[in-house]
Design brief:
The protein is of the alpha+beta class and about 500 residues long. It has four domains: about 100 residues, no CATH class; about 170 residues, Nucleotidyltransferase, domain 5; about 60 residues, no CATH class; about 80 residues, no CATH class. The protein is about 45% helix and about 15% strand. It is built from 19 helices and 14 strands. A hairpin with a 2-residue loop joins strand 9 and strand 10.
Length: about 500
């Protein structure tokens, strides 16, 4: 428990000047007696009054000090078990309080104030700023923060994840805002930067190495558990969290980033620079800018590339959403190329589809032309399938369709009508009826139907009954309830009663 400095001063004064006992000080100042004893022990002043009473643990203190010197982190419970095996009979609770006074304290480490030359170094890190809800998706809101070590110039850009592509886009934004590149960039042990580490041996991400080679800077990781080496970006993230993001309203990600750019150019640039005699951050950056490296003529291309295999439906799944593509591309391996605004689906060098990117979840982003083409293809397929069946069963129907088309007839309607007649009268009867209709130069399904009905009446046959079963098996098992015949008996009785 930490006590205020004024209480600590009162404890020392009452004990050494007023000669109060520890219990009296604890009661009057409303603190625990162990707290009073700890303050007196830390002050290093000699105890006054009667000498302390001997304790049962005193014979074991040399063993305890020797053990703790070898094993400073040994737990009090294990140490209590060791001294009990050597004859100690005290309880574990009291033993813990005693160990709190005798356990060696690690000496505090002192740090040198690090200084860098203008244009020499920048520090980069991610900061997590909660969640952003877009449609049905909940995405992490990540802040990419880069700061120049000399001038403390800050670059801030928010993204919806911390993947490598956005990591590099953050660098590109910082280089564009500064108009140049620092010679060294410090990284924490981020997965975006460091893939593997064994002691001082580092394996950087190959994409980051390629990016650093393009811009001619040196990527340098900080040591493990040495956050002080990148304290400038740590303080910058805290400054962003307290000075910019707290209680800020924004409509969407673009609005938040626009406000962040204005804040970096305004409030963040007008604050005092810690460098001696440097003035504001804006003035220090003006001094540092000429020492930065020049940007290359061509920017590094940053695009998300994902290999996909299209299923039987003309859609590609990317980043929790489905994007349409032409139906001719189904069952094929393709590649998705995505940037923050658009998603392109390519087949080698050919772009087969392009859509605005969605950051929601479970959405279908469609091009109406893709859907219309698929519907038309399905309709044409059904029409051609029916036409093939009809011409195979009744070859004369092909001549009828050609002559009907010459007169502007609707071939789909004619084909459907002839198919219905074939199912009712059979293929042979339909072939004869079509031949007779063509002889009369009437290429129309109504003429064919009249011929079929006349031939049926000449043979004195009943009208044909369609025996086509319903498509779904559930409909085939439907129970048919016969109509009650009582109503017909009532009609007969009413007829007999008429005068």
């Amino acid at each position: 428990m930490t006590i205020p400095p004024d209480i600590e001063a009162q404890i020392l004064r009452y004990y050494h000047a007023e000669k109060w006992r520890i219990g009296t000080i604890a009661r009057q100042l409303h603190v625990h007696r162990d707290t009073v004893a700890r303050v007196l022990a830390q002050a290093g002043l000699p105890r006054i009054g009667a000498p302390p009473r001997p304790s049962g643990i005193d014979p074991y203190l040399p063993f305890i000090h020797e053990t703790l010197a070898k094993f400073p982190t040994l737990t009090a419970s294990r140490l209590h078990g060791m001294v009990r095996e050597r004859g100690y009979r005290g309880g574990e609770s009291h033993f813990r309080h005693v160990m709190a006074r005798h356990r060696p304290r690690p000496s505090a480490e002192a740090f040198l104030r690090l200084s860098t030359l203008p244009g020499e170094q920048a520090q980069v890190d991610w900061g997590h700023f909660g969640q952003m809800v877009i449609g049905r998706a909940q995405r992490p809101l990540m802040a990419f923060v880069a700061v120049l070590s000399y001038s403390r110039q800050i670059f801030l850009r928010f993204f919806l994840d911390a993947r490598m592509e956005n990591f590099l886009r953050g660098h590109l934004g910082a280089f564009g805002a500064w108009g140049a590149v620092p010679r060294v960039i410090l990284y924490d042990n981020l997965k975006s930067a460091v893939l593997e580490r064994h002691g001082d041996a580092i394996r950087f991400h190959p994409t980051l190495l390629d990016f650093a080679g393009h811009y001619r800077y040196e990527p340098r990781p900080v040591a493990v558990a040495r956050g002080n080496e990148k304290g400038r970006v740590e303080r910058a993230i805290r400054f962003v969290r307290d000075g910019f993001f707290a209680a800020r309203d924004y409509a969407d990600l673009d609005d938040l980033n626009a406000q962040a750019d204005a804040w970096c150019r305004g409030v963040a640039a007008d604050r005092r620079c810690p460098q001696p005699d440097a003035g504001t951050v804006r003035e220090a950056f003006a001094t540092e800018a000429p020492h930065l490296l020049r940007l290359p003529d061509n920017p590094y291309p940053v695009v998300e590339r994902v290999a996909v295999v299209v299923g039987k439906t003309p859609y590609v799944r990317f980043d929790k959403n489905d994007y349409s593509l032409p139906h001719t591309q189904v069952r094929r391996p393709l590649t998705v190329l995505a940037d923050p605004d658009r998603v392109r689906i390519v087949d080698g060098p050919q772009v087969v589809a392009s859509h605005c990117r969605s950051y929601g979840k479970g959405e279908q982003i469609e091009d109406p032309a893709h859907i219309r083409a698929l519907v038309a293809q399905k309709r044409d397929a059904r029409h051609h399938r029916a036409t093939d069946q009809l011409t195979k069963a009744a070859p004369a129907s092909q001549t009828l369709l050609v002559r009907a088309a010459e007169r502007g007839g609707n071939l789909g309607t004619i084909t459907a009508a002839l198919m219905r007649l074939m199912r009712r009268y059979g293929a042979a009867e339909l072939e004869r009826a079509i031949a007779e209709a063509l002889d009369r130069d009437v290429p129309h399904p109504n003429a064919v139907r009249l011929v079929l009905e006349r031939r049926r009446e000449d043979r004195r046959q009943p009208p044909p009954v369609s025996m086509i079963l319903p498509a779904h098996v559930r409909d085939r098992d439907t129970t048919v309830r016969p109509h009650a015949l009582d109503t017909y008996d009532q009609l007969t009785e009413a007829t007999h009663e008429d005068p």
